Amino acid sequence: MARIPLLQMTGISLTFGGDPVFSELDLVVQPGDRVALVGRNGSGKSTLMKVMAGIVEADKGSIVVPPGRSVGYMEQDPKMEGFATLGDFAASGLEPGELYKVERAGEGLKFDPSRPVETASGGERRRAALAKLMAEAPDLMLLDEPTNHLDIEAITWLEEELKSTRTAFVLISHDRAFLRALTRATLWVDRGQVRRQEKGFEHFEAWRDKLWEEEDQQRHKLNRLIKSESRWAVEGISARRKRNMGRVRALQDLKAERAGQIKRQGAAELALEAGPKSGRKVIEAEGLSKSFGDKAIVQNFSLKVQRGDRIAFVGPNGAGKTTLLKMLLGMEQPDAGAVALGTNLETAFFDQTRDQLDGDASLWENLTSDPLLGISGKADQVMVRGNPKHVVGYLKEFLFDERQARAPVRSLSGGEKARLLLARLMARQSNLLVLDEPTNDLDVETLDLLQELLDSYDGTVLLVSHDRDFLDRVATATIAMEGDGKAVTYAGGWSDYITQRGGLPGAEKASKAEKPKAEKPKAKPQAQPKAGLSFKEKHRLEALPAEIERLEQEIAKLQELMADPELFTREPVKFKKATEALVERQEKLMSAEEEWLELEEKSGS
Question: Whole-angstrom Cα distance, residue 5 to residue 540?
Answer without folding.
Answer: 27
